[in-house]
TrEMBL record:
<dbReference type="InterPro" id="IPR011990">
    <property type="entry name" value="TPR-like_helical_dom_sf"/>
</dbReference>
<feature type="transmembrane region" description="Helical">
    <location>
        <begin position="366"/>
        <end position="389"/>
    </location>
</feature>
<keyword id="KW-0902">Two-component regulatory system</keyword>
<keyword id="KW-0808">Transferase</keyword>
<dbReference type="InterPro" id="IPR036890">
    <property type="entry name" value="HATPase_C_sf"/>
</dbReference>
<dbReference type="InterPro" id="IPR004358">
    <property type="entry name" value="Sig_transdc_His_kin-like_C"/>
</dbReference>
<dbReference type="GO" id="GO:0016036">
    <property type="term" value="P:cellular response to phosphate starvation"/>
</dbReference>
<keyword id="KW-0418">Kinase</keyword>
<dbReference type="Pfam" id="PF02518">
    <property type="entry name" value="HATPase_c"/>
</dbReference>
<dbReference type="InterPro" id="IPR036097">
    <property type="entry name" value="HisK_dim/P_sf"/>
</dbReference>
<dbReference type="InterPro" id="IPR003594">
    <property type="entry name" value="HATPase_dom"/>
</dbReference>
<keyword id="KW-1133">Transmembrane helix</keyword>
<keyword id="KW-0812">Transmembrane</keyword>
<feature type="coiled-coil region">
    <location>
        <begin position="332"/>
        <end position="427"/>
    </location>
</feature>
<protein>
    <recommendedName>
        <fullName>histidine kinase</fullName>
        <ecNumber>2.7.13.3</ecNumber>
    </recommendedName>
</protein>
<dbReference type="InterPro" id="IPR005467">
    <property type="entry name" value="His_kinase_dom"/>
</dbReference>
<dbReference type="GO" id="GO:0000155">
    <property type="term" value="F:phosphorelay sensor kinase activity"/>
</dbReference>
């Protein structure tokens, strides 16, 4: 019964550890992914701590390496408190690696540091950790010493949760000693202590701890010859285990119930309990439990066979270690032979079933053929008549469909011609506008430059006049250059040379790129461009086209903003779309200008607040690129208050076709 109580705790711990670690990633890969986004050393230290604490149960050696590296970083950055946290984690990991001496030494370092800092709760947790290490290393006497010291502090600082946890640990040690020994007084003391801890467990401890209390009380009362109370607490433990579907808990508590039935001489009920345990093990797939409970099953079978209700069922096996190992090898061999026999019989059964199925299929096929032949003979006459009638009907139906198809084709051709005419008309208007703008915006700087050269040949112009004239020509050339860039982008799309490359776009970062690109113009007008987009916002779209749209709208916002104002870029998350908005505090537009811009056609260029010029085709290309990706752009504006441009990006309707 002693080792059974230990196995209960270990079994439940195993389940919790398994559930915790099943979703974990490889430690170093996870850490590297965390560090990739961090620049601050203190955040890197915390990333090491986070990964090591989440990993130590599943991969203790890897967690130890990560924690030691994090500890070194914490020392280098003089982060005193986190250093102690790392040492505490390393101490816990050393215990899981069975390096008990190293674990205890590490926890003592943390204990002394916490006592020096006056950290009472931290000191209590260090004492609890030291007690846990001694308990795991099978030194119950030393574990009890440190548990009791931790209990004193827990009561002084009124930490009821940890007081309950420590009380349960002490109760486990007392129960183990009482179950191993022969003194009735020790059993009574252990029972009394566990009864006191139940109140703590009900108020603050999880049900796993409450289950442990009930199970240990069931074993202790059985040893104390109080079968009724043993049955009462064993039933409570079974209820908790079955409610939580704890296979280990169900088996360990039900084996004690079988012990109780043996003591009462109710051998049939004991045999039923054994069968229930077997069914639970089989259902859970934890077949190793058959080996763990095999000696218990044998002893219960012996008690039933000999009709001896006074047999005391314990976990102490009289076989030697060598005998136990030989028995384990024998069980392994038997299990393997049974598995092979099962697989062979299963395969033979499958082959027999397959032969029977094939025979049945052949019989059904033969019967079907006979019936089919009879049916074909009877229906042949009707089919010939139907074919003749159907042929005539098909001929008439085909003629009707051909007429309808021809009508539909003529209608589609007329619609295509109309659309092509409309597109040619718009293209002709656009080309006329393009030639007009090109002839003006390219000829103007060239003509001015020619005048400057002609005059400079005739007379010596002052250097200030030449510089001023060249600056003016430079502004005109800059406007013409921007217009040519936009025309090149547009012509590339019109010629079909570029296809959409839909990818994930980080809006915040692209806004920052634009902010850097326009820094000179922003400084010139003393403008503040605020990037209020959430760094986590990601959209799907074509990078080059989105960059063009973003640059063009921000450039227009700078162009029409007054000196010292603010341009704000923000986003709105909606159920069906993400909206990226650019708002300025500039000149604004009246309803007539706003309506022209909404027409998505080439517009007349307007001078900016510093008399900046433009070609008037940028916003048209923005509309065209947005429509190509399944987006749309809308605008709001008031004269003197500024304008807001909304780029509306549907979440599920982005086209990825060329």
């Amino acid at each position: 019964m002693v080792s059974a109580s230990k196995s209960i705790i270990l079994g439940v711990t195993f389940i919790l550890c398994y559930l915790f670690t099943s979703a974990q990633q490889t430690g170093w890969n996870r850490l590297n992914s965390e560090l990739a986004t961090l620049n601050d050393d203190s955040l890197k230290v915390m990333a090491h701590y986070k990964v090591s604490t989440e990993l130590y149960k599943s991969s203790p050696q890897e967690a130890k390496e990560i924690a030691e590296k994090g500890y070194q970083l914490a020392v280098a950055n003089k982060m005193g408190e986190i250093q102690l946290s790392f040492l505490n984690v390393i101490g816990v990991i050393e215990s899981k690696l069975y390096n008990f001496d190293e674990s205890i030494n590490t926890h003592f370092k943390v204990l002394r540091a916490r006592e020096k800092n006056g950290d009472r709760k931290g000191a209590m947790l260090s004492l609890l950790n030291i007690g846990n290490v001694f308990n795991v290393s099978r030194d119950a006497k030393q574990a009890l010493v440190y548990y009791e010291q931790a209990m004193v502090i827990a009561r002084e600082i009124a930490d009821i949760r940890n007081e309950a946890n420590i009380a349960i640990n002490i109760g486990n040690i007392r129960a183990q000693g009482a179950l191993k020994g022969s003194k009735k007084a020790d059993v009574v003391d252990a029972i009394n202590y566990l009864l006191k801890t139940i109140d703590f467990s009900k108020r603050k401890a999880p049900e796993v701890d409450l289950y442990n209390c009930y199970t240990l009380l069931g074993y202790l009362y059985l040893k104390n010859e109080d079968v009724l109370k043993s049955e009462y607490y064993t039933d409570l433990a079974i209820d908790i285990a079955e409610a939580g579907n704890f296979t280990y808990g169900i088996c360990y508590s039900r084996i004690n119930r079988a012990n109780i039935f043996v003591r009462r001489g109710q051998f049939e009920l004991a045999e039923k309990e054994v069968e229930i345990i077997r069914q639970n093990i089989e259902k859970s797939g934890l077949h190793d439990l058959f080996d763990e409970f095999n000696s218990d099953f044998q002893k219960i079978a012996k008690a039933i066979k000999e009709d001896d209700k006074d047999i005391v069922l314990t976990d102490v096996d009289s076989a030697t270690v060598a005998d136990a190992e030989e028995m384990e090898l024998l069980r392994l061999k038997v299990r393997e032979e049974l598995r092979e026999k099962y697989e062979t019989e299963k395969k033979e059964l499958e082959n027999k079933n397959l032969l029977l199925e094939n025979a049945a299929i052949e019989r059904e096929s033969l019967l079907f053929k006979l019936l089919l032949s009879a049916a074909l003979t009877i229906l042949l006459t009707f089919v010939i008549m139907l074919i003749l009638l159907q042929r005539k009907n098909v001929q008439l139906r085909n003629e009707k469909q051909n007429v309808e198809r021809a009508r539909d084709e003529i209608k589609e051709q007329a619609e295509r011609i109309h659309e092509q005419h409309k597109e040619l008309f718009q293209a002709d208007r656009f080309r006329s506008r393009i030639f007009s703008v090109v002839s003006h915006d390219l000829r103007a700087p060239i003509a001015n430059f020619q005048v400057l050269l002609s005059v400079s040949k005739l007379i010596d112009l002052p250097a200030d006049d030449i510089k001023r004239t060249l600056i003016a020509i430079g502004h005109e050339v800059e406007t013409a250059s921007k217009m040519l860039d936009e025309l090149l982008v547009w012509s590339s799309q019109q010629m079909g040379n570029e296809s959409l490359e839909i990818t994930s776009l980080a809006v915040f970062e692209l806004v920052e790129v634009c902010k850097s690109l326009f820094s000179d113009r922003l400084n010139l007008k003393e403008l503040d461009l605020k990037n209020c987009v959430d760094p986590n916002v990601v959209i799907q779209g074509d990078l080059k086209r989105f960059e063009f749209i973003l640059r063009n709208i921000i450039s227009n916002a700078i162009k029409f903003s007054y000196l010292g104002k603010t341009i704000t870029v923000f986003h709105e998350e909606r159920p069906e779309e993400v909206v990226v908005a650019i708002a300025d505090e500039g000149a604004g537009m009246d309803n007539e200008k706003l309506a022209k811009l909404q027409d998505r056609d080439m517009q007349e260029s307007y001078l900016g607040t510093f008399q900046e010029k433009g070609a008037g085709i940028g916003l048209m290309l923005c509309h065209e690129f947005a429509n190509r990706m399944g987006w749309h752009i809308r605008m709001e504006s008031k004269i003197g208050l500024g304008s807001t441009f909304y780029i509306c990006i549907p979440k599920h309707s982005i086209s990825q076709e060329d």
